[in-house]
Write a structure and sequence with these properties.
Layout (H helix, E strand, L loop, with lengths): L14 H8 L1 H22 L7 H4 L2 H18 L10 H17 L6 H29 L2 H31 L14 H24 L8 H11 L1 H10 L6 H32 L8 H24 L3 H7 L2 H18 L9 H15 L2 H7 L7 H8 L1 H21 L5 H17 L11
């Protein structure tokens, strides 16, 4: 790879170079998918009430709010002649996340599982945030949509496998899918063990196979770092929300309602499907655990759709625009979530997941492609970290109000959380119309 700086005109990379620099997302999504599909199940097994789930899930967005902007800021300020700028953070996060994935399913009390969710989510975020910035570092504007689409492909593939693991261990390998009250089933434990191994191996593939471009002035970078100090960096990490480019502000509204919907889905799909479709809320019953496993298949389905659609989105964007492509995808996602209310046959849930998968593919790529075209190269990680505020703030809001809304208005019937999520997707779609995208050379 030629030695160019990240601020000069970057050469186009080959398909396999983009593949290698994105491959780590396969492992990262093993971690997130196992978390999204199984944490509510773990909490319920360990005694959590339905209306407490959203509060217990606060760990995930709060750690993202704290970790991602800090990691983005300091990864911008890092350079090592062997390990580069972003890759040290990939490796550290992978080690910590792998440990957390092994410990989480062995939680013996609710408080322990909540603490492990904090640790696991923080570790995953350490790895994930610099991956977004790496696309901006390494690719010219005309390849960034492809770069983020490649990440989305690996996110989809990783999530398909990870989400289906409990079902696979039960039906293919005969591992017990039920356990006595207060004990996490072996299928979930083995899924997390395999996920930890996959996480570490995939991220380290990117660490070892990718060579980063050096900053334009390494001496100046080191001098700036020496003068900043730790507290200056922390302050700057969190004040970036007041310095956002116009397009970033516009995208923040879209992000807020998109991720509010996603968080509603991740928290409540297990309880919604088991109660609304399977007709049980008894976490020790065979029927409940069959339903919980089927939620894993549903999540695998929408991620599989996302992996396929990821490479179609750039084509649609060229025919229309990136913002219109995102609008259409979000509308389909909203339809997918709301349609679950009308389903009684578990197999039909897979149809709903098609719309969700298309929206997920776009959420993981289009906003970042639009954003990266307006960000200064030397602050790519910093602003990507700040942009994460509009992923985690809606999750915190969702965690704070969804349980209250369900209890007050819907008699704790979780299916209504998915309807609220669908409406939120529609709002996000409408807000795409205000986004001004710099599509020159995209």
């Amino acid at each position: 790879m030629s030695q160019v700086s990240i601020s000069s005109k970057k050469p186009q990379l080959s398909f396999w170079q983009i593949w290698n620099m994105s491959f780590g997302f396969l492992g990262i999504q093993f971690g997130f998918a196992l978390q999204n599909a199984n944490v509510s199940r773990i909490f319920t097994t360990l005694g959590a009430a339905i209306d407490d789930l959203s509060i217990l899930w606060l760990a995930a967005p709060v750690t993202g709010l704290l970790v991602q902007p800090i990691i983005g800021y300091y990864s911008d300020c890092t350079w090592h002649k062997k390990w580069g700028r972003r890759r040290p953070f990939f490796a550290i996060g992978a080690i910590l996340a792998t440990i957390a994935l092994f410990v989480m399913p062995n939680s013996t009390a609710l408080w322990m599982s909540v603490i492990m969710l904090w640790v696991m989510d923080a570790s995953i975020n350490i790895s994930m945030e610099p991956f977004r910035a790496l696309v901006g570092d390494m690719l010219p504007n005309e390849q960034r949509t492809l770069g983020f689409a490649m990440q989305t492909f690996f996110i989809g593939v990783g999530a398909v496998i990870a989400s289906a693991l409990p079902f696979i261990f039960t039906n293919w390998f005969g591992i017990s899918n039920i356990a006595e009250e207060g004990v996490i089933p072996d299928t979930v434990k083995w899924s997390f063990y395999l996920g930890g191994i996959a996480y570490f191996c995939a991220v380290m593939w990117t660490v070892l196979k990718t060579e980063e471009y050096p900053p334009e002035d390494i001496v100046k970078l080191k001098e700036e770092n020496a003068s900043r100090g730790v507290f200056t960096g922390l302050i700057e990490s969190f004040t970036g929300i007041f310095k956002m480019p116009k397009t970033m502000v516009q995208l923040s509204y879209v992000q807020f309602f998109s991720w509010f919907a996603l968080f509603a889905m991740w928290i409540y799909t297990t309880s919604a499907v088991t109660s609304h479709v399977y007709g049980t809320s008894d976490s020790t019953s065979t029927l409940y655990n069959e339903g919980a496993d089927w939620v894993g298949i549903c999540f695998a389905t929408y991620n599989g759709i996302a992996a396929i659609v990821a490479f179609l989105l750039p084509v649609v964007a060229k025919k229309t625009s990136r913002r219109i492509t995102h609008l259409l995808a979000l509308v389909l996602g909203g339809i997918g979530l709301i349609s679950i209310f009308f389903i009684t046959d578990p197999n039909m849930l897979l149809i709903s997941m098609i719309g969700v998968g298309i929206a997920w593919a776009s959420i993981l790529s289009m906003p970042y492609a639009m954003l990266s075209s307006v960000l200064p190269a030397h602050k790519m990680g910093y602003y990507m970290g700040v942009f994460n505020f509009f992923i985690v703030i809606p999750q915190i809001v969702a965690a704070g109000i969804l349980g209250f809304l369900l209890k007050l208005f819907f008699e704790n019937d979780s299916i209504y959380a998915l309807i609220i999520g669908g409406v939120s997707m529609f709002i996000a779609a409408a807000l795409c119309l205000i986004v001004q995208d710099n599509e020159e050379s995209a």
